[in-house]
What we know:
35 strands, alpha+beta, 7-stranded antiparallel beta sheet, 10-stranded mixed beta sheet, 34% strand, disordered N terminus
Amino acid sequence: MRLFLIKTEEWLMACLLLPGLWLSGSLLLTSTLVDQAGGEEDGILLTLAAERAVRPGEDLVLDAVVTPLLEAPDLVIRWEVPPGVSLEGAVEEPPVQVAARASRSSQRRLTFTAPGVYRVGMVASYQPWPGARFAAQGVLFFTVDDNAPRVSTKDPTLVSPMRSRMETYIQRSPAQPPALRSLDDKPCFTLQGTITRIDRMPYDGGLMAAVSVPVKRARVEIRESDLIHDDTEAEVRTDDNGHYTASFCADDGLFDDELELYVRLRAQGRSAGMQVVEVIDGWWWEDVYEYDSEVFHSRGGDYTVDMSLNNAQSEVFNILQAVMEAWSFWNESGGQEGRGNTFQWGVQVIYSAGDRQGSFYDSGFNEIHLAGDASNSDAWDESVIIHEWNHLADDKTSCDDNPGGEHAAMEIQDPKLSWAEGYGDYYQSAVRAAQSYTQTNWYIDTLSETSVYREDLESWDRDNPGFVTPKNEMAVAAALWDLIDADQDGADTVSYGHAAVQRVFTSERFKDAEKCTFRYFMRAWKQLGQPVDAATAAVIQQNTGLVIDPVTVARLPGTSAASTAALQDEESDTRLFRWWTPVTFLVDNSASMGGGKLEAARSAIGEAVNDLGAAPLGIEFHLELFNNLTTTNQ
């Protein structure tokens, strides 16, 4: 007896062979299929395993193992099963505390009552601090069938929406006069309408309820159906309200004035005379997504042809819209310093639902590859899409020296990596704020309708004091966010707007800098005459830990000279260049200083504060005390 396991990306099937005999039909899997989700960047690891496929009426046990990578005070495991599948045990387990990198197991017995395809998921999440939630999702698809049961990590029913039909509403204008004709006696047509799609805005709990929004600035073609080759009669763009209008005159050849017309919507965003973005179907020989309306027959006249997109079609145009928003905001914020206000490079976004884990930017081809995997698709995640587009902007207009590779929020990073990724984490918040999204201070990566990975830029310094450093991408993002946002928290009292940040980001001073790091960005900030007062310094120190350098000491009666520490490695040194004036008062409070001496020191400090406090670039005052009973200053 020999057991063969045949494995493809889509499914697994086991065939049992006996000498001289082939057992008819596909047998049940005897090998375990595992979906692995999460990773270092998600703060959690998850595996979901099925020991075999099932026939109708059969049951099996699913095994899950969850490993939080940080201390998890409230690890929650939730099982998701569709109608037609019965679950033995609770859908959601009570929160439990789990140590960092310790594993927790969970099992559930499922019974599949009828033939069909069933999606079974398990989500694990925890909140390591108030401003974050880490989550991962495992997903398996069961094809329950008497003859060919299968189990897969991909939905076997999923098909590309390429060239699918849009829901169409066609109305000919009533009481029209005879259709106009061209000078060469062809019938004339005017088509106008509105195209809408579904939107699912991310928030800190998952995806909001579906709403209808216009398809903006997308390519629309009026097509004429023919037996051999369809012709394009007109090409226009939707406006910001999703509206289009096209007029043309045409016939179908000799003695045939009746046309079979339809409207084609293509996932191409165009503005300012250039192609900004194309969304490409990775399943369909990497062609641009396009959808068609219903076909209607006409001999001319005015028609209203409205269309609406379903969920799968809408995902593609949500991606397109996010890129258009990132591009438009870049232009509205001043473009490239000294080089014009229009970003001149287009991008292709490669996306296929059900395919690819992880999103990334490919600088060699100006492509964004967007995750479509069932366990974590990024089609609705503007934070991810805009972050990846910013890598294009960095590549073309800024000091791009990103070493790339895997990275996580909770780690000390190469300062070039933390800068490049941190700026993208910041830019997505800036764009979403300009578009009036909800919770714009968050970086949000949804896993499902009710599960999400999220990080709060506003509270990063309070939640993670151990990662307040320019070598952490979230700290960099938080510092930039506090430079532009209107909310005041801690030492943040400034609000300069994104245009000030982008001016430095795209400047020659920063683009040609010795290193592409936050430290060198702030040097260019100062050199370009951006605000450099004590309030600005406070924001930088609060979020990255970079402080003033060097210390100026005010010598007072009875004090001793302060020593200056030797400089460390530049990117490890916590001291940033100084644009404000620091003053440190050293006062001896020993018993011998009692009475008039200590009072004289207090008076001198008060006069100095009054004299220096109005300095235009700011004064930072420090007071240190020492005496003959202690070995360190207080």
